[in-house]
Design goal:
alpha/beta; ABC transporter transmembrane region fold; Rossmann fold; 2 domains; six-stranded mixed beta sheet; four-stranded antiparallel beta sheet; 10 strands; 9% strand; disordered N terminus
């Protein structure tokens, strides 16, 4: 109800980013492979971490061996003089382990942050390259959640869990090999419990991953609702809908709460099962180790060392049971990230695309048919023909939904036509690069987009390389310099989010200054003065007259007073041209344009 970003093609359940089938879930293997692709450039740090892992695993052997030596040799032979050396050895191993773990943890944390930085930037750049239809299909809050929350979850995996995982794998392999060397029969009995651990882990892993996916999706719903509510706060307050919005927000947070509770229940069931299997292994070692010791086949010190190694062997399993939650949560987040990364833009440069040369501005639509969702949907334009002559002002009028704004979107290739062609100076827009096309087109619309920052930064958005004098000249040409100078900080004035601190007329003049600074050959004015008062409209019309001079201009308007001087006016209905001509010619024909004019100016028209 209060969704500022409502779009008829965007659904709450939208989970497909392309028009094809839903992609298969990304595997954990592919997740680690992509992480490694980013991390391998940090090879000096990775080498340092690897050395630390090897040394930590080797030191893990020291204490059990000291214990074995103490029981079997020192105690047996009453070597009192070696007790201090034994204490020093244990404490030295502890200090060395602490230093190595500090180094490995800090190094892996730094690697994790750098990988996170690269991954988030890759994701953002990819989003920037996707076409407008992608953003029609997907919710802004959900996309924000993927770029921020989901990538942050991956950071936890990279920074700490991966380090623990690599250490545990190396330690487990080394200790298992050593235990097999000491007593392979006892070790095999112990390892017989591990298939049950693997089976339990796989069974719970799939369920935990699915539950984490629900957590991430419900969190995206919360983010999307919050984004819409905060941007539409004035509308909410004007309709006294605070309680209604609070209830809607509560519904979404409850779904997130329920999803998190389900994850906790699965973890609460999984970890005790793993502990039980570990204790079963402990029982095997105690019983058979004691039996071998009583038979004289194994010393007591060896049994104690074997139990210590068993604990070291089981620690990686315990760690993995906890890391599994992080891995599955990261896998669920990675699936949501990779869905975007694997989405290809439907509108992109062809391999043989050329740079559009400086244009004169002749734009031709020939047999164009277009629908927003696809060929099976109702067509907005059907076998549509139109010509915009260079250096002239062409106006489009008609009822809402007649296809006026769609024509502007097709010129800039925000969408591509299903059939027919659009050419500029005889060159098909599909044959040129998007950057070279859009760099020569300027758009001034009713829906003004200004970014949180200074006035100067927003004007310079039209040309990032422009100097202060060029920015001021553009503002003067847009009749904006006077009101900008009246502010205390002038061009350094902060305008607030979406220009909330400026009036409608002021925001529109800044957007015109931005277009003037861009200096495009083709100008599209989409209801540029529709919501302004008479004084603001007059100032903006004067600014537009300077902007349009010598350029090809397409004007989309409901207010017919703004297009009376247009060189050619086209009246659209249901995606077709009803009539066209100059203002005077169309009034004389007594057709649809005359009807629209009479509705807006009944008294003037009767005279």
């Amino acid at each position: 109800m209060m969704n500022n970003n409502f779009n008829p093609h965007r659904g709450m359940g939208a989970r497909r980013f392309g028009t094809g089938e839903k992609a298969k879930p990304a595997s954990i293997y592919s997740m680690f492979l992509r992480i490694f692709e980013h991390a391998r450039k940090e090879w000096p740090s990775l080498a340092t971490a690897l050395v630390c892992i090897i040394l930590i695993s080797l030191l893990e052997f020291v204490v059990p061996q000291i214990t074995k030596y103490t029981i079997d040799t020192v105690i047996e032979n009453k070597r009192f003089n070696e007790l201090i050396l034994i204490a020093a050895g244990v404490l030295g191993a502890a200090i060395a382990l602490g230093v190595l773990r500090y180094l490995s943890t800090s190094v892996m944390a730094a690697i994790g942050q750098r990988v996170l930085y690269k991954l988030r930037n890759d994701l953002y750049r990819h989003l920037q390259r996707l076409d407008v239809s992608f953003f029609d299909r997907n919710r802004t809050g959900d996309l924000m959640s993927r770029v921020t929350n989901d990538v942050s979850i991956l950071q936890q995996l990279i920074s700490s869990s991966m380090m623990q995982l690599f250490t545990d794998i190396f330690t487990f392999t080394a200790i298992a090999g050593y235990m097999l060397f000491i007593d392979w029969k006892l070790t095999l009995l112990l390892l017989a419990t591990f298939p049950f651990m693997i089976w339990t882990t796989r069974l719970f892993g799939k369920r935990i991953r699915a539950s984490f996916r629900k957590v991430q999706e419900s969190l995206a719903d919360v983010s999307d609702h919050l984004q819409n509510a905060l941007t539409g706060i004035r509308l909410i307050k004007s309709f006294t809908a605070e309680e209604y919005e609070s209830e809607r927000f509560s519904e979404r947070t409850k779904k997130n709460m329920d999803a998190n509770i389900q994850v906790v229940r699965l973890r609460a069931a999984y970890e005790p099962l793993i502990d039980f299997i570990n204790f079963a292994g402990m029982a095997i070692v105690l019983v058979f180790g004691a039996w071998l010791a009583m038979k004289g086949s194994m010393t007591v010190g060896t049994v104690v060392a074997f139990i210590a190694y068993l604990r070291l062997l089981q620690n990686p399993v315990r760690h993995f049971s906890r890391i599994l939650n992080t891995i599955q949560q990261a896998a669920a987040a990675y699936e949501r990230v990779v869905e975007i990364l694997n989405t290809k833009a439907e509108i992109a440069d062809r391999e043989d695309a050329i740079e559009l040369p400086p244009v004169k501005g002749r734009i031709e639509f020939r047999g164009v048919s277009f629908s927003y969702v696809g060929k099976n949907e109702a067509e907005v334009l059907e076998q549509f023909d139109l010509e915009l002559k260079p250096g002239q002002v062409t106006a489009l009028v008609g009822s809402s939904g007649s296809g006026k704004t769609t024509i502007a979107h097709l010129i800039t290739r925000f969408y591509d036509v299903q059939t027919g062609s659009i050419t500029i100076d005889g060159i098909n827009v599909k044959d040129v690069t998007l950057d070279s096309l859009r760099s020569q087109v300027g758009i001034v619309s009713q829906d003004i987009v200004l970014f949180n920052g200074t006035i100067e930064e927003n004007i310079r958005y039209g040309n990032h390389n422009a100097g202060a004098e060029e920015v001021r000249a553009a503002a003067e040409a847009a009749n904006a310099h006077e009101f900008i100078s009246s502010f205390k900080d002038g061009y350094d004035t902060q305008i607030g989010e979406r220009g909330v601190k400026l009036s409608g007329g002021q925001k529109q003049r800044i957007s015109i200054a931005r277009a003037i600074l861009k200096n495009p050959r083709i100008i599209i004015l989409d209801e540029a003065t529709a919501s302004l008062d008479t004084e603001s409209e007059q100032l903006i019309q004067a600014a537009l007259a300077k902007l349009l001079k010598g350029r090809t201009c397409l004007v989309i308007a409901h207010r017919l007073s703004t297009i009376q001087q247009a060189d050619q006016i086209y009246v659209l209905e249901n995606g077709r041209i009803e009539e066209h001509g100059t203002h005077a010619e169309l009034l004389q024909r007594k057709g649809r344009y005359s009807e629209l004019y009479e509705l807006q100016f009944p008294v003037v028209y009767e005279k």
